[in-house]
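Morning!

This is the sequence you dropped in the shared folder:
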Amino acid sequence: MEACDGTEETLLPLALTKFQLSEEYGFLLPDPLTELPAPYGPWMEIAHDLPQLIASHQLRSQVHQMPQLSARHLQGRKELHLAHLVLSFITMGYLWQEGEEGTVKVLPQNLAVPFWEVSQALGLPPILSHADFVLANWRRKNPNGNLDTIISLPGGESLRGFILITLLVEKAAVPGIKAIIQAIHAILQLNEETLHKALQELAEAIGDMSKALKRMHDYVDPAVFYAVIRIFLSGWRDNPAMPDGLIYEGVSDEPMAYSGGSAAQSTVLHAFDEFLGIRHSEESTAFLHRMRNYMPLPHRAFVEEIHHAPSLKQHVLSSGDARLCAAFNRCISALADFRSYHITIVTKYITVAAAKAKARRAEPGDRAGPSAGKPPSALEAKGTGGSHIFSFLKSVRDTTKEGMISA
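The structure's back. Tokens below.
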């Protein structure tokens, strides 16, 4: 890369790399590893066969035969992220193999200890999170760039679609993340033209995120999502199916409770909220701040940095610039629309799907176990992260709208 004289060109990539963010991929892990070094073959072997092992009810016995491996020989961020992805998927399969009525109270030592070690090294909790499920779980199938997941769980094409559409939403956000950095620089330099352009780019990126989210309908079957996939994203905090949490054998004698994977763990919307000065209700804010503990540490730091940056809203208000005010409101409107559309998706994939599943549940011949499609009932009104899903989503959408600057 050629050196450049001006500092303006170098500020942007420097600001991103400081927080392990990519120019091209944003919060996504760029080109994740797909295989661990040879000594970790036993983990990879089980991970690549998870859907079949769960469907045949053999995963737990396979895990019990797994050798005790230390995570200390893993090197670099990409090896650690792949190990966390692999161990988190194995853990979710182990926990939920027999559905919500067949949970276990203890995660065996040969899985719990290395999972804990990798989690400590990354600053992530020892459970499947958005950082594993989406950010680090993608690969190119061929040179044309067709995408696939690295590790899977029951749910077939619908699971693959759910992960990859969520990934495309993250990818669509990248110009918006870069626009935030440009906007903060513009505020510091009192450059209203650059700020206006950055706000236009942010609004456009949020609109593109909504377009990406709409593709969920084409790739994810609501019945499969609700009855098969959802339980494997469920955690052991605020979950009636596992009220006492989980003992990580060899780590702690006391059970520990962690929230399941949730869209609220995506750093993108936290960053947008902080930048646009959106203030959610006390209850929603408490939940969202708890979800930050499930983000990679550098991504958390990025949100904090935006929080401490000069206030965009105050700058726009004090500027008295009608164009800036309109551009700001377009960003708010685009974000509220995105959140409204998310509610539409959740209605289809959880509420409507739950009603249909309830109607089917009474039918005879319903085999146990999530691979057979027995839907979980413990989280009917809750998200996999443990929030009361509709009151939370509507509250967050409404407080977003309240962020508008009135004329």
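Headline: The CA atoms of residues 326 and 405 lie 8 Å apart.

More detail when I'm at my desk.
O.
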